[in-house]
TrEMBL record:
Ranges of residues in domain Thioredoxin: 2-168
Protein name (database record): Glutathione-dependent peroxiredoxin
GO MF term (any one): thioredoxin peroxidase activity
PROSITE patterns membership: THIOREDOXIN_2
Uppermost EC category: oxidoreductase
Biological process according to GO: cell redox homeostasis; cellular response to oxidative stress; hydrogen peroxide catabolic process
UniProt record similarity statement: Belongs to the peroxiredoxin family. Prx5 subfamily.
Pfam family, one: Redoxin
Positions of the catalytic residues: 55 (cysteine sulfenic acid (-soh) intermediate)
Catalytic reaction equation(s): a hydroperoxide + 2 glutathione = an alcohol + glutathione disulfide + H2O
Function: Thiol-specific peroxidase that catalyzes the reduction of hydrogen peroxide and organic hydroperoxides to water and alcohols, respectively. Plays a role in cell protection against oxidative stress by detoxifying peroxides.
Keywords: Antioxidant, Oxidoreductase, Peroxidase, Redox-active center
Native organism: Ramlibacter albus
């Protein structure tokens, strides 16, 4: 499993970008993780699935709510990673009104999940291989803090914990 001090994996995620005015999306667009993280402080959180209850009701809204505080604490970007395709993540971004605050990044083939060792086997529930609910503060491509949730929990990967780790209130 990835740990503090490790570099983010050299994988490519996918992202949609909103087109101003008509709600259509451009994409999917590749996001090379190591390249995109260079020289930045990133609050990265991962979750099992778009449109799932805890993810939609608590996880993403918390980061949207703490956006300004995280920016003040020195976070350049907030990334949400989930094993979904880019079309689903784009639709979820519109639903969550995360545009301009949280980058919704699709890990469609679970490459990021596998490379970080954060895979979650949800085959018995019909969801396949996913990523564990977690968060990490990333500085210049390296993990500065890592928070991995116990199965079924939402206690340490929330925005308030990330804000404390980033040096905010």
């Amino acid at each position: 499993m990835i740990k503090v001090g490790d570099e983010l994996p050299d994988v490519t995620l996918q992202e949609f970008s909103e087109v101003e005015g008509n709600g259509c999306s451009i994409g999917p667009n590749p996001v090379k993780v190591r390249e995109a993280a260079k020289g930045k402080t990133i609050a990265l959180f991962a979750l099992p699935g778009a449109f799932t209850p805890t993810c939609s009701a608590k996880h993403v809204p918390g980061y949207i709510e703490k956006f300004d505080d995280l920016k003040k604490a020195g976070v350049d970007e907030i990334w949400c990673v989930s094993v979904n395709d880019a079309h689903v993540m784009g639709a979820w971004a519109r639903d969550q009104k995360s545009n301009g605050k949280v980058r919704m990044l699709a890990d469609g083939s679970a490459d990021f999940a596998k490379a970080t060792g954060l895979t979650l086997d949800l085959n018995a529930r019909g969801m396949g291989t996913r990523i564990q609910r977690s968060s990490m503060l990333v500085k210049d491509g390296k993990v500065a803090s890592l928070n991995v949730e116990a199965p079924g929990k939402f206690e340490v990967s929330d925005a308030a914990t990330m804000l404390k780790q980033a040096g905010g209130a």
